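Need the bound structure for nicotinamide-adenine-dinucleotide, inputs here:
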Amino acid sequence: MNSNPYSDLLQTQNDFFDSNQTKDLKFRKGLLQRLYQVIEQNEETMFEAIYNDIGKSKLETIATETGLIKSEITHTIKHLNEWTAKEYVPTVLANLPASSYIISEPLGTVLIIGAWNYPYLLTFQPLVSAIAAGNTVLVKPSELAVHTSALITSIINENFEANVLHVVEGSVKETTNLLMLKFDKIFFTGSTTVGKIIYQAAAKHLTPVTLELGGKSPAILTADASIKLAAKRLVWGKFLNSGQTCVAPDYLLVDSSIQEQFITEFKKQLIAIYGIEPEKSEGLTRIINLPNFNRLVHLIDTQKVIHGGKSNTRSLFIEPTLLFPISKEHPIMEDEIFGPILPILTYQNLEEAIQLIKEKPKPLALYVFTNSTKTKNRILKEISFGGGGVNEALVHLGNHNLPFGGVGSSGTGNYHGKFGFDNFSHKKAIHEKSNWFEPNIKYPPFTPLKTKLIQWLLR
Ligand code: NAD
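Answer from helper R.:
Posting the output first, comments after.
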């Protein structure tokens, strides 16, 4: 008797995968079209659920969740024939006469584990890629986003057969049980701490993983930056979803010669965008739960508050809060903030800013606000980070032509668009030999002439 509660479910998915039905492109496109319809039919309920979880507005839910998922589906269906086509590559001279090509084949049954901060996007977007690549899929949304987790479960499980796509709800206990099983791929989005647990569990089965993790993502402002525009874009990028965004700027590094001008402008933009009573703004969400709220409130060093700082336990609301001046040794510089608190540090020369970033683990994102090509190029060349922007924050993740993922402790692997399809595929390399000619060079006896020929061919 098998004691793992998910063994049977996994077995039905493995069996279905083995039936080869997911290898049919029409079948995959049908699932993607169905997913699109399911989202469209349930979109109003999805707006309600996410509002109940974190108070996110309809517009923002479309812009950062359902709209992005729909456009990912449309883009994927449009390109699926091209992505799945046999890819011919040149054959090296020594192997001729032959042809060489790559076949993208599905991996099997994959497990997708989501985070709560963009609960739809972080489960559905990898799901689109996993289906497109021809896998059977088990999804585990985050239990912290209670309403969206329940809704994702019902809309998927009511509309898809469990043997091809199924959602399992749960927290640590359920995820631990799932992780005991052998999947063909695990795609995880969440914290670096839990990422290590996932990696270890996967290693037991040699299961490949993609880890979409977090970290402290910096934004650098140089003396020649367009201050007003930089402030406006940074306010949006930092406080969208109340800072609960994996690629939100975690801290600012500002050239000391523009610090006063920038801070004045930043405060102006905060008021222009969220008003003088930010709690009434529909552009600011709530903190996900009381433990996170308490964690964030404790991070607010009241001696350093230069804007905001107030919070409301009942509504789990924290004002956009600026802390200044902050040193690199301040406690807020230790871990990812993941909330609406922004520490501002200053630097005297660019070298200092680069050093400070490089002393920390490689960030998921980095943003540089500058009008100097030389400075931009230096930063892009010298600092390793997952992805990011020049004179913009966050927006790179909305382009399915760019790979999205971290590097080092901010993650491994990437997805979105074709990168997502490739992530959930195995690239099978084929050398197809023609039968009209068989050179004898590789067969003994080895003569001096053959040695010379091999040296020439592999020069
Ligand atoms: P989390 O790591 O606490 O949880 C993520 C998932 O892991 C959830 O589904 C949860 O149920 C599961 N989980 C939690 N503890 C577990 C355990 N001990 N064993 C097995 N599974 C466990 O992360 P979170 O709080 O949901 O999300 C916040 C973090 O995620 C931040 O660090 C953020 O930067 C990161 N994040 C990264 C991305 C990205 O794309 N790189 C996107 C969103 C969030």
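Comments: The mean pLDDT is 97. The two ends are 59 Å apart (CA to CA).
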